[in-house]
Specification:
Length: about 900
DNA sequence: CCATCCTTGCCTTCGC
């Protein structure tokens, strides 16, 4: 528990609690330097005065870090204060509270807004604890025993962030005159540094969850990691909700077993469920005593929207948003540096090109950053951002994290932010320093996104942020961990079971599941007994389970981790000039398969011509002219979050009541009024059901606002239930707002809607049957097979194609289904499909809401503004891009003619005029 | 002229 509070004592710079930190005012370097010098002088003068009065140095107060008690031999506190003062910062209350807690040996979770200075706060808190524990003091004044090899572990989710953090932690050490060593270990760490670390680890190590697991897999793990006293898990919100977070839970349990007094702190951005985040980090035995510190500093946050200048010409559908190009150019022009976030990689390529076309003078100042670009070019972009030499970067989520401490002035978000947490995260990329305001500007790409923009701002201001939950008992991660621990010195099952149950994810692991896992690493379970490769772990004469086979040990180490990604086709320059052999990045096999040599495509911000494809590599050269193809990647499809969807419905509610206070709503007003006139506005407590008859057949449009994944589940469910009573066939389409069913025959929608379509019934059974869940589970099994070590992805440099990998994972799936149906990995695949892909819980809730809702029936004579994007979505699957464009133009022409009333001439459908 | 689907990490081993 906290040490007794000291009575308030003299302060050199009194400061009311909770007040903002003083920043060195930005009025020129000379003035700033003077301000810093003055601050340092003030601290030093206070120290000198205190020393003169015969007071021991640690009591010298310039808002000292708590825990640094008089006589505790901690000049550290004063040094840290001085370091802060030199930057014109004063510590926040949360930073003091953190230092107090850490000094007292407590664990917990620190929630702080991005850019609040949490990194330094946690670092200094750890230093204070460390010093209090008798580790070496600042240079020259060694006390106590020499430092143990490794005392502080700092985990980050990204290599780039690890490198940044390593530097950030080192700098204050040097300035504070400490001789403690900070090291970084990740896949980026050079071989020489790696070798040095193998001889002796630094006192503080910044690393990734995967690299930590690798350290745990070494025979001498207990010696090298056994003395770790403090662990800081940075960006815990990023790890919490996935298997990487579970891997961290397991690693922490291991470290705590070696050192029961282990102090663990998570650093997290805003989450809707911070209590759970703490529980998952600390585990069932420690969660209750764990602290939850809220570092809610008054960070100024501004969310605004670029309103389309000509709303009459703003489109009804689509997500590219190129109509906003001139305005985006103007915004970039007006700021020193900007990040332009888009939602997909191909959109990033297109926007980068469009911006360069609009402003050729920005060549060299504009950059592109997404996950399929070569690591070197991404590193170049990140360095350019840090150095402030870039005007703007068009990027995907790849710049959500990492590259900390950027001098970014503006953040633009093109298209839907999809979630409140994401929006806040991106806003935090600007003004990334304590006390500086953050600003994000939303750029809607179509009319309904105007509503979403108003909703996103309202939800962010109300603090409705999404929750993230730890996975429950993933057996693939446990299996991997068992082999890791068997390698890392071996284990005795009883002791390891207790340790594993100390993790939140495995708190309820029963004996049967545990025995299954042991059996699986021991002999591959019932189905694989005949294969020696799956006899990975065996007890020795002493009853300690180890990995006897060196070859299997090596394989395992190379497969550690829970991220599974497809091997893409590598794109490289062909022959000739200087750039020959240079790597540009990766594209998907399916994209390259459609190209022939000589075809052009746009990639990595360049126009390229395909020369040849050979062994998973597409060789290219620079090209000019020609209409290029643009690669598409089949990434994950993030659905609109429940929080944001609820905010959209609330905004529509406002509109239905005639309130158009938000400027975005006012701008969308003509469209919303048209929707109300032709159909009705969806609103809270009501379910809008539109029907339309076209040449194609009978359409039904429903708007549950539950995100695209749930809508896909609902649409399949409805189609399946309807076809059960009469042999009808439906085609379906979904987006984040709603879903549509189309039937060639008349299914009598009114009867269908009244006949228990939304009943829960045997929901699970119906959903599984309607979606061909077996096939989904089979696909899901690929990742599970990789993580559990069934599938070996090959040695580095030896590229195996996705198809091969899928085939062998599929083989295991079949073998288990036929010969080992009790295999828990099969259950896991099903559970992951239901929970993650279908969001079954959200689907149930949506269905219940639809049952309870008042039905708004709207027979349409022509597609409504809400129905139109769904209609387009459905056609997209069958038509080529050009044909689709023709169709959309024709449809909008028709709509414009239909809507020949005054309300419509100023309404969005006249976007048709562009056609 | 239309355009959609994100991100994250990672090895070894030996003999000279």
């Amino acid at each position: 528990m906290s040490p007794p509070r000291k009575p308030p004592s003299r302060r050199a710079t009194p400061r009311p609690p909770g007040s903002l930190p003083r920043l060195a005012p930005r009025r020129g370097a000379a003035a700033a330097a003077r301000a810093r010098a003055a601050a340092i002088e003030a601290v030093d003068a206070a120290r000198a005065a205190a020393a003169g009065a015969g007071v021991a140095e640690p009591t010298v107060e310039c808002a000292p870090l708590p825990g640094c008690e008089p006589g505790s031999s901690l000049p550290m506190a004063a040094r840290i204060e001085r370091w802060y003062a030199a930057r014109g910062w004063a510590p926040f209350d949360f930073q003091r509270a953190l230092a107090t807690a850490v000094a007292a040996g407590e664990s917990g979770l620190l929630h702080a807004t991005t850019g609040a200075g949490k990194t330094y706060a946690a670092w200094f808190a750890a230093l204070a604890r460390w010093a209090a524990a008798g580790a070496p003091s600042p240079s020259g004044t060694r006390r106590g025993p020499p430092a143990p090899p490794l005392t502080l572990l700092w985990l980050t989710p990204m290599r780039a962030l690890a490198a940044d953090t390593g530097r950030a932690l080192q700098a204050p050490l040097a300035e504070l005159g400490c001789d403690w060593r900070v090291g970084v270990r990740s896949g980026d760490t050079a071989a020489s540094e790696r070798a040095a670390q193998d001889r002796r680890l630094p006192t503080a190590l910044v690393t990734t969850p995967e690299s930590l697991s690798l350290l745990l897999s070494r025979a001498e793990a207990a010696q090298t990691l056994g003395a770790v006293a403090i662990v800081v898990v940075d960006e815990w919100h990023e790890l919490l909700g996935n298997k990487r977070g579970v891997q961290v839970q397991l690693a922490l349990a291991r470290l705590r077993r070696w050192n029961p007094a282990l102090v663990v702190w998570g650093l997290s951005a805003t989450l809707g469920n911070l209590d759970h985040a703490r529980a998952a980090l600390l585990g069932p035995a420690h969660a209750a005593q764990g602290r939850l510190l809220r570092g809610e500093v008054p960070k100024q946050l501004q969310i605004d929207t670029l309103l389309p200048s000509a709303p009459a010409r703003f489109p009804w559908a689509g997500h590219l948003g190129m109509q906003m190009l001139p305005q985006v150019v103007a915004e970039i022009d007006a700021s020193a540096t900007a990040l332009v976030f888009v939602n997909t990689r191909s959109q990033a390529e297109l926007w980068y090109q469009a911006l360069l076309d609009a402003r050729p003078d920005w060549a060299g100042l504009l950059a592109l950053h997404h996950g399929s670009l070569d690591a070197d070019s991404r590193a170049w972009v990140e360095a350019g951002l840090k150095a402030g030499t870039l005007k703007a970067v068009v990027c995907t989520s790849s710049l959500d994290l990492g590259v900390d401490f950027l001098p970014v002035e503006r953040v633009l978000q093109i298209g839907s932010p999809k979630g409140v947490a994401r929006l806040l995260q991106r806003a935090g990329r600007s003004g990334h320093a304590p006390g500086r305001p953050s600003r994000v500007t939303l750029v809607p790409t179509q009319s309904l996104e105007l509503v979403e923009a108003a909703a996103a701002r309202a939800a962010a201001e109300a603090g409705h942020v999404e929750a993230r939950r730890s996975p429950e008992q993933p057996m693939d991660v446990l299996v991997q961990h068992l082999v890791t621990v068997a390698l890392g010195g071996g284990f005795r099952p009883d002791a390891l079971l207790a340790e594993v149950r100390g993790c939140h994810a495995y708190r309820a692991l029963d004996e049967a599941a545990w025995q299954w896992a042991l059996d699986f690493v021991g002999r591959g379970g019932a189905a694989l007994v005949a294969y020696p490769d799956y006899r990975r772990v065996a007890p020795d004469e002493g009853g300690v389970w180890r990995v006897p086979d060196a070859r299997l040990a090596r394989r395992h180490r190379m497969g550690i981790g829970t991220i599974v990604s497809d091997a893409g086709i590598s794109v490289r320059y062909w022959g000739g000039r200087g750039a020959a052999g240079g790597r540009l990045g990766t594209v998907e096999e399916s994209f390259v398969a459609r190209l022939r040599p000589g075809d052009c495509f746009l990639f990595a911000g360049r126009l390229l011509e395909l020369v040849r494809v050979h062994e998973m590599t597409a060789w290219v050269r620079r090209a000019s002219g020609a209409r290029p193809a643009v690669p598409r990647w089949n990434g994950g499809r993030m659905p609109l979050s429940s929080e944001l969807a609820a905010a959209v419905v609330a905004a529509l509610d406002d509109a239905a009541d005639g309130r158009f206070d938000a400027p975005e709503l006012e701008r969308a007003r003509p469209l919303l009024e048209l929707q109300a006139r032709w159909s009705a506005l969806p609103r809270r407590g009501a379910l809008l059901a539109e029907t339309l008859k076209t040449r194609e057949g009978h359409h039904l449009f429903l708007y549950p606002f539950a995100g695209r994944a749930v809508h896909l589940g609902l649409a399949s469910l409805f189609a399946w239930r309807l076809a059960r009573t009469r042999p009808l066939s439906f085609s379906i389409a979904v987006n984040d707002y709603g879903l549509t069913l189309l039937c060639a025959e008349d299914p009598d929608w009114d009867a269908a809607l009244g006949a228990g379509l939304f009943e829960a019934g045997d929901l699970l059974g119906d959903v599984l049957a309607s979606l061909n869940a077996g096939e989904l589970a089979r696909r899901r099994f690929r990742e599970i097979a990789r993580v559990s070590g069934l599938v070996f992805t090959g040695y580095p440099g030896e590229a195996r194609s996705t198809r091969q990998l899928q085939a062998s994972a599929g083989l295991f799936y079949e073998v288990f289904r036929n010969h080992d149906p009790a295999n828990l990995l099969l259950d896991q695949a099903e559970q992951e499909v239901l929970r993650q892909e279908l969001e079954l819980g959200r689907l149930e809730a949506a269905l219940a809401a639809m049952r309870a809702a008042r039905l708004l029936r709207a027979p349409l004579r022509r597609p409504s503004p809400f129905a139109f994007p769904l209609l387009v979505e459905r056609m997209r699957e069958k038509l080529s891009t050009e044909k689709l464009a023709d169709r959309i133009r024709r449809m909008l022409d028709e709509l414009e003619r239909a809507a020949d009333a005054p309300a419509v001439s100023r309404a969005a459908p006249s976007a048709a005029r562009e056609g």
